[in-house]
Amino acid sequence: MTTPVNAAGRLDRLPMGAFQWRILSLIGLGMFFDGFDNQMAAGVLGALVKEGWSNMETNAHYISITFAGLAIGALMTGLVGDRFGRRFAYQFNLLIFGSMCLLSMLAPSMTWLMAMRFFMGVGIGAEYVCGYGMVSEFVPPQRRGWALGLISVVSMASTFAVNFTGLFVIPALGWRPMYLIGGCGALWVWFLRRKLPESPRWLEARGRYEEAEKIMQDIEAEASKAGPLPPVISVAAPAPAWVPISILFSRGVVTRTLLAMAVCITCLVGSYSFSYWVPTFFVKQGLSVTKSLSFATVMALGSSLGPLVGMLTSDWIGRRRGTMFAALWCGVFALAYSQQTDPAWVLIFGFLLQGGMSLMIGFTMRC
After folding, report:
1. Is residue 237 over pLDDT 60?
2. E strand or H helix at 53
3. Do the Cβ atoms of 33 and 182 come closer than 8 Å?
4. Which residues cross the membrane (predicted)?
C-alpha cells in the first residue's frame, strides 16, 4: 500500500471510547509506577541515613545520579522513539527501570545502589516523555488537555502512595522491600502493555502505510460499536524527513527552546529536591523514621491536588496561563513554608507547596 492513511484526521475525529480508555489506563499505570519508583528515594534515603548506610553527602550523590539518568532518559527516548517506534521506546524504558528497581533490592553497598539508580533514572526519565507523548498520539484534541491532566493526577498520586506504603513497610521491614514493590509493579505493567498498538501517526510518517492502515481499521472497528463515527477530516500527512536536533536552537525557535528549558529545569529541580530531601532533613532534625515518613506522607497528599486542579482547568485557561498561575502558587507557598517552625503549619504549607509543584509539572510537561 502506497496511499497515505490520513491517520491524524481519522484519529482526531473519533469520540472518546473503550479504545482510548484502554490506552489511558495502560499509560496511567506505567506513569504511576514510574512516579512510585522515582519518589521512593525520599523514604529510602532517610532510612539509609538512620541505619548508617549513607550520610547527607552520599545522599546528595544519589540524587545527582538520579538527575543524570533522568536527563539522559528524557533525551534518548525521543531519538529511540523516532527511530524504532513509540511502542518500542515505551516498553523498553519500562523494562529498564522495572528490572533495575528489582536489582536495587539486592544492592550490597551504597555504591552499587547508586549505579543501579542511574540506570533506573534513565528508564524513569524516558517514561515521562513517552507517556505524555502517547496520550497526544491517540486522544482527540478536544479531550487532550483533560486526558493529559488525568494522567498527571494518576502519576502524582504515586507520590502519596509511595510515602504511605513506606510509612508501614520501611519501619517494619526496612528499605529493600520498597524496591521489590516498585520493581514488581513496573514489570507487571510491562506485561500488560505487551499488546499496546504502535502509533499509526508514526507508522504513516515512516511510510509504513499498510501497518498504519491495519491498526486504524482495528481502532475504527472498535469505536464504531458505540455508534456511527463522525466523518473523516482530511489532514495532509507530512513527508517523511529527518529533522536535526539543532533545529531547536535555530533562529525563531531558540527563544522558545530556552524558555521551555528554564521552566522545566526550575519546576523539576524544585519539586524533586523538595520531595527527595524532606524525609532526610526530618531525620537529621532528630525525628524517627516513622515520624519523618508520616510528615512526608501528609504533605505528599498535595501532589494529587495540583494535577486535579490542572485537569479541571487546563482546557479552560490554557497551558500558558496555567503555567504562570502554577509558578505564582509555588512562589507564594514556598516562601510561606520556609518561614514556618510550628509542625502544624509546616504540614499545611508543605501540602500546598507540593500541590503547586505538581500542578506546574503537569502544565509544563504538556505545553
Report:
1. no
2. none
3. yes
4. 23-48, 60-80, 92-112, 118-135, 147-170, 176-192, 258-278, 293-310, 322-338, 344-365
Task: Tell me which DSSP letter residue 3 carries.
Answer: S
d(CA 164, CA 99) in angstroms, rounded, equals 23
Residues 17-52: pLDDT tens digits? 889 999 999 999 998 998 898 888 888 888 888 888
CA 234 – CA 251 distance, rounded (Å) = 31
Percent of the chain residues past pLDDT 70, beyond the cut: 93
pTM value is: 0.79
Cα–Cα–Cα angle for 339, 343, 347, rounded to 5 degrees = 80
Is the CB of residue 27 less than 8 Å from the CB of residue 151? yes
Per residue in 268-327, pLDDT tens?
A: 777 777 777 777 777 777 766 677 777 777 777 777 777 777 777 766 776 678 788 888
Q: What are the counts of helices (DSSP H) followed by strands (DSSP E) for the chain?
A: 14, 0
Cell numbers that stand for 207 in this block: 511510510
Cell of 230: 463522525
Give residue for cell 541505619: 51
By CB neighbour count within 10 A (0-12 exposed, 13-18 middle, 19+ buried), where does 71 fall? middle
Q: What is the DSSP letter of 228?
A: P
Task: Say how far apart CA 195 and CA 187 lie, in whole Å.
Answer: 14
Q: Name the 3-class secondary structure at 102.
A: helix
* Between residues 274 and 66, the one the model is more confident about: 66
Rounded Cα distance between 173 and 170, Å, is 5
Number of residues written out for the chain? 367
C-alpha cell at 315: 482546557
User: Could you tell me if 76 and 126 are in contact, meaning their C-beta atoms sit under 8 angstroms apart?
Assistant: yes
- Residue among 318, 335, 327 at smallest CA distance from 359: 327
Angle at 295 between CA 293 and CA 298, to 5 degrees: 105
Collapsed DSSP state (helix, strand, coil) of residue 223: helix
Check residue 224 and give its pLDDT: 87
Cell of 49: 541515613
Q: Distance between CA atoms of 212 and 216, rounded to whole angstroms?
A: 6
pLDDT of residue 354: 83
Cα 340 from Cα 182, distance rounded (Å): 33
Superfamily for the 7-228+248-366 domain? MFS general substrate transporter like domains (1.20.1250.20)
| Cell reading at 251 | 533562529
